[in-house]
Amino acid sequence: MSAAMSLDGWREYVKPLEELAERSGLSFHPVDFEAVPDSFMMEVAVYGLPVRMPHWSFGVRYIYQLIQHRMGHSRIFEVVFPGNPGHAYLASSNGLADNVLVTAHVLGHADFSRNNLLFRRCQEQVSERIVEHAANHARQIQQAIETHGAERVEAVLDAALALEQHVDVDQPLRRELYPEYATEPKIVDDEFRKRFESLDPAEDEPTGTDYLKRAPVPPHPERDLLWFIGHYAPELESWERDIFLAVREESFYFYPLFATQIMNEGWASYWHARLLREADFVPQQVYLDAIKCHSDVVRPIAANQQVALSVNPYHLGFSMWEKIVENEGLEAARRIMQQDDDFGFIRNHLTRELADELHLFRYTAKDGQIRVLDIDLDGLHENLLAPKYGFGAPSVSAAHVRVDGTLELEHDYTTDGRGLDLERSRRVLEYVQRVWRRPVVMHTIDHEGSPHELSCS
């Protein structure tokens, strides 16, 4: 096979695979496929988008990814951006079989992102053309750098990106500000006050027996810190608010990718295997090489007879979808794909039988010793899902703004079930304080469960 064929020959299989996918019941927006150098693939994987706002933290992540790649610990076959159209970047270093498999895998992702309700809701609120949308954000931030200077813009990005997981996707992207007054007026029961109020009511004051009380800010613990600071920081300038809200928009886009990773990767893996089995137009040797690549993708982390101590989402998701289709049928699988996220998927469909088959269990690792805790199914479910709560971030809310403007943050460690890294938390508070421009305090516990009040002023 010629070098040109191995590098670009996969393109002739794109259209037949798309047609086969549609005949098989997949429904997806058009996907733009492009083969790019490994260095660009790594940049896209680190930034999360082909063009994104500039910040030093992405450089740190790039170096880490580069080291992992050169040590042979990671390989990026493709990066997919859901939307209409979708965008898929394939590594130009992939062989023909790799990219044929990846093309089928991408079509599974495209079907998932178009039909899963969580994806649809978030994309409808942000944009179905996220690549172009994020590029507009990057241009706006570059203009802010030219106008206000790199140092000021970086300080805002430091704070916004440190809080990028602290959004509330249960609220709409474009939500109303808090009401200025409390929704339930205070009823005056005292007879003397009733008579006093009725003597000379001011034109702009409520009449009768009701008092309108100014609502506190926030009126309830606010989990969406990006939205709250973007709208209620006392001295935030309009361009700074725009940066906070741009980061929040992109977080809304990334949330479904995070919250459905096991389902999504498993669904794409199920469909690339199924499409390749039915693709009689793919040469036998290419098919065999692609199936070997499939086996590498969906294998457990550990090799041979060892039991994996961390879960490969491709392996777990693929195994679950195969079992669901086998037991309940493809239409039932599609309904689950449309309605669930990883929380519902794992809790409702990771059965004891499959958990035993996959050798899944809860464990602790200390001083190099592995100890199995239990094989309780509910405990296993929650152990798998624990890193996904709250977008993977601690449950921290804006609880109160004092009269002097001090912002009080509250870490809900009873629900969260974990302590914080105090040094890292202090750095985040410093970032927040620079944009809040008043003191910031947070009540939390450390990893040992001891209470702490962190402050920055």
Please specify the SSE layout and strand pairing.
Layout: H1 3-8, H2 14-23, E1 31-36, H3 38-47, H4 56-70, E2 78-81, E3 86-91, H5 96-115, H6 117-125, H7 130-148, H8 150-162, E4 186-187, H9 191-199, E5 210-211, H10 225-232, H11 238-259, H12 261-278, H13 284-297, H14 313-328, H15 330-339, H16 342-349, H17 352-357, E6 362-366, E7 369-374, H18 377-385, E8 396-401, E9 407-411, H19 413-416, H20 422-436, E10 440-445, E11 451-456
Parallel strand pairs: 1-3, 9-10
Antiparallel strand pairs: 2-3, 4-5, 6-7, 8-9, 10-11
Describe this structure in words.
- The protein has 457 residues and is of the alpha+beta class.
- Among the domains are: 130-165 and 217-257 and 394-456, no CATH class; 300-392, no CATH class.
- Helix content is 53%, strand content 12%.
- It contains 20 helices and eleven strands.
- It has helices spanning 3-8, 14-23, 38-47, 56-70, 96-115, 117-125, 130-148, 150-162, 191-199, 225-232, 238-259, 261-278, 284-297, 313-328, 330-339, 342-349, 352-357, 377-385, 413-416, 422-436, and strands spanning 31-36, 78-81, 86-91, 186-187, 210-211, 362-366, 369-374, 396-401, 407-411, 440-445, 451-456.
- A four-stranded mixed β-sheet has the order 8-9-10-11. The protein has a three-stranded mixed β-sheet with strand order 1-3-2. The chain has a two-stranded antiparallel sheet with strand order 4-5.
- Helix 7 (130-148) crosses helix 8, helix 8 runs parallel beside helix 11 (238-259) and helix 12 (261-278) packs across helix 14.
- The chain is globular and about 90 Å long.
- The chain starts with a helix and ends with a strand.
- The relative contact order is 0.10.
- Mean pLDDT is 84; it is low at 1-6, 66-73 and 302-309.
